[in-house]
What we know:
The chain is mainly beta.
Amino acid sequence: MLLCAAGALTVARAASLQITPVTVNLRPDESATAITLSNDGTEPIYGQVRVFRWDQANGDDALLPTQDMVASPPLIQMAPGSRQIIRLLRTGPQAPQAEQSFRVLIDEIAPPDLGAQSGVTVRLRYSVPIFITPGAITPPKMTWTVQRVGGQWVLEARNDGGLRAQVAAVQLISGDRVYDINKGLLGYALAGRTRRWQLSLPPDATLRAPLKLRARINANPAEAAVTLSPAP
């Protein structure tokens, strides 16, 4: 689950929203599923739930409006200690030819009376990925490139396979130097798409060919050659 702050908190609170599962996988013949929200805190939680088609363009994630999947209910109000079932209903094609990806955005918002006073609309945003995967599909087929752009190292992952690639625990190996890019999840390269990430390397980092990458792709260990591209 991706979690990001979407607005500054102006009041102390003890609300705590838990979401299960953190990733949703659907078969092509499944028309509905559900996620469960739990309020483990001591204050009510107010929120809105929306579904977007998830794509990638120009090396970055893009969330697009969609009617192919809807969430019910779209608005939530949860008392402390309560649970809420969110139904996810498919309304688009039931037999996709390629893997489809969506994201459910759950915005935790201020109570109606407080929101009007403080101007805070969204407190926290939770993003849950959804994948609809056909039965016969090719695994991720990755091509890796590192390039220096505007003084910043950039890692590019091109996925020519039919299945998304969840990229985690990334290392770059250049000669006898090993650079830990991240310990956990770096992100996804969706099927047939290209994703880029800026890398936070030490100031004295020098990357030279031959360059290798170690990572966990969909939780499986992987090692691959990396093309060191000249600066544009």
